Every structure is written in C-alpha cells, then in structure tokens.
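User: Some background: our group keeps a shared notebook of sequences we're curious about, and every so often someone picks one and asks for a predicted structure to add to the entry. Today it's my turn. The entry only has the sequence so far, pasted here. Could you supply the structure so I can complete it?
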Amino acid sequence: MLRFMPVGDSQTIGSAGEHTWRYRLWQHLRDTYGGPFALVGPRDTLHDKAADAPTSYDYADPDFPRAHLAGWGEGWLHMTPLIADAVRSCRADVLLVSLGLIDLGFYTNAEQTAENVRRFVAEARAARPRVRMVVLPVIPNIRAVDEPAFGAQVTLFNELLAKTVADLDEPRSELLLASPPESYDINVDTYDGTHPNASGEHKIAGAFAEAMYQGWGVGEPYAMV
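Assistant: Of course. Here's the predicted structure to add to the notebook entry:
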C-alpha cells in the first residue's frame, strides 16, 4: 500500500462543493497506478467559506477519500510543526506539497520561507526516514500580477525552492520538484485569480502526476480533459 499525503494551503484543502486537485489526482492514480494506494492525512474537511472555518464535508463526490494535511491560510510556517506527527501517525510514504503563497503573502520573505522548507523536510524525515516528497512551486496568482514586489518574491522563492530540493534530495528519501503547469492561466484556470476551478485542478494534479511518472515511474502521463 502506497500512502500519499497531500499537504497544502487553500488551493489544496478546497472549499465546500469543490472537487479539488486532490480528487483529480486520486482519480488519475486509481486508473493508472496499478497497485493499492491511499490518500492519508490527519484532516478530512473542506473549508466552509460561510463559516470561515474548515468544517465542511460537502464534497462534490461522496466517494472521494478525504484525508489530507491542508488548511486555508496555512503555509510552510504552519505545517512544519505538524508534519512529523502527521507523517508518523498516518505512515505517509509520499508527501505531495503545495505551499508558499501564504508564507510570502503574510509571514516570511523568500529566504525565510526556503529555510522553513528545510525544516519541514528535516521534520518529515525524522518521523519517517524514507519518506519521499513531490513539491510544487508557487503557481501563478493574481497578487503576483498586481503587486510587482510580491511577484518578485514569488520568483525568488521558486528559484530558492529548486535549489533547496536539489540540495536535500537523497537516495533513501527522494525529493522531486514538480514543474508548474505550463499553460496555467489565472484568467482561465481559477475562479478568483488564486483558487483553481475545474481546469486548474486538473492542471495542478497533472503537475504532481507528471513529476511522479517521470521521476519514479508511478502511474502514467496525466490525461487532461
């Protein structure tokens, strides 16, 4: 049994009534992986925008395995103290990580955020030395377009993230840097400039799927719809 743990912010937890990229990736792995697998994590809710709290179970597909470690407004800063317990208790084999936008937007600069990536990896490995990780850079968003200084921080962080992943990669606990979806367009693939709609969900799922297929031979190339 291969256990995947999605780790992320609002783009990963999703909100009431959404499918989320986690669901799209689960569908893809269900159809292409060819072996037993599970999505795991200590949380299982969606964000309820009306209550402004992660309390919704209004999933678009009731059969979707809901487990994750994601939260609205949470970043590397918030997940680093939680990751060791989550990896240990859920016996995660592969972490699928999409973080950074929140950190850069409210808490830490690019260099500080990259340091938190290092701490996150160290904590995850302390809990499970052979855990593997796929990390997605910060993808296009409206704030990076509207605020050049913020956009520059995103660009710098993504450069530092690539260097950090390359530096920390090791044979017993491999790290992969997923490529941002080349065709991702905030005017087409989001509903508000930041959060993915259905096409955006597919493209994010495809980025993780392609990284695992190319890097580890897991599954098959992602079929966009």
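Suggested note for the entry: The chain has a mean pLDDT of 96. DSSP finds eight helices and eight strands in the chain.
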